[in-house]
Amino acid sequence: MPNTVQRRRKPQRPRKALHKLIKNDMILRVSEDEYRRKVKRVYAGPRGAILATCSTLSLHVPLGERIFRTRKFDLRGLRSILDVGSGAGQIARHLVRYADPAAEVTCIDLSHHMLRRARNRLKGDRPEFVAADLARLPFADAAFDCVTCGYVLEHLADPETGLAEIARVLEPGGRLLLLTTEDNLSGAWTSRIWYCRTYNRQELLKLCEGLGLLCKQELWYTKMHRAMRAGGICVELEKA
After folding, report:
1. Is residue 39 within 8 Å of 197, Cβ to Cβ?
2. Which structural domain range is residue 235 located in?
3. How far, in Å, are 12, 37, 73, 181, 206 from residue 17 at the CA level?
């Protein structure tokens, strides 16, 4: 009888099933209008009011600040910056601090409540605040040489719509700092709390490439985040 070695079948990892169980799929189940109304209510309510505090406690604010302070994403020399989905002004605060004094900074958000909170936190004549929708940006083609988009894309059922709008308002050679929720366990919990979707890293970068947004570098908050593949998707892209 021939000497054969039976290979053990590796048990299927339960992570994907767990992620699917935890994730909130409302964005895929209801109409676009109904979903947007829900998101507006969430951010206008108590969760939106404590968003800045949550971002600080989760270390997203101080670790995000390090990306700009160490020039991993370099703001020097930029003339016109658009911050998409400014929320409570977490990224906008870094833009005002580390961009050149002459740089124009424009912040948009779908929620009037969040814009008011950001304006109250970032007292001063910078930045300019505009109520606007990522899916229909009210700006001319090639109006900006930089766009930052932090944890906003996950509120679009079709990310191509928002990414195409960002590509449109970016000038050739303009840069995009994109942060979004990844399809892992922590991302699933984020989806549950904020009614958003999650993204596969490689699929998202491929979609960006198809729109002329080419990945320059993947950014990580710390070496530990890089080793553990944690902290979500954070990439610098450049418009071809």
Report:
1. no
2. 22-193+231-239
3. 10, 29, 35, 18, 25
